[in-house]
Design brief:
With 110 residues, this protein is mainly α. The chain has a domain of 36 residues. It contains four helices and no strands. Keywords: Coiled coil.
């Protein structure tokens, strides 16, 4: 059974064959011009990707700052609530362990 992957593979193979045939029939000057054009396009693509990554980084940084400011504005206790929720778990477990030890000591003396 022939599916879309087989058709796509066949088309890509045919295009690669045509491109290789065209490349071998080019003069040295045309080959050099084409390679320079490809390098230029690749560098432009790289520059665009780098700029987009920087914009995304700035966007998410700004979103985090503005998001927390907005949350504080609409929910005044948000910062304390977030600190309680995501705060230092080590301190919380240490306090719980100390409380459990105190409970055991009280039970032992009773």
């Amino acid at each position: 059974m022939v599916n879309n992957k087989h058709i796509a593979t066949f088309i890509l193979g045919a295009l690669a064959g045509l491109a290789a045939g065209k490349y071998t029939s080019m003069s040295d000057e045309e080959k050099e011009k084409m390679m320079n054009n490809l390098k230029e396009k690749a560098n432009k693509l790289k520059d665009d990707a780098t700029a987009s990554a920087e914009q995304a980084k700035d966007y998410f940084s700004e979103l985090a700052t503005k998001g927390m400011d907005s949350l504080k504005e609409h929910f005044p206790g948000a910062e304390k609530w977030m600190q309680d929720l995501f705060g230092n778990k080590k301190t919380d477990t240490a306090a719980t362990d100390t409380g459990a030890a105190a409970d055991k000591a009280t039970d032992a003396t009773s």
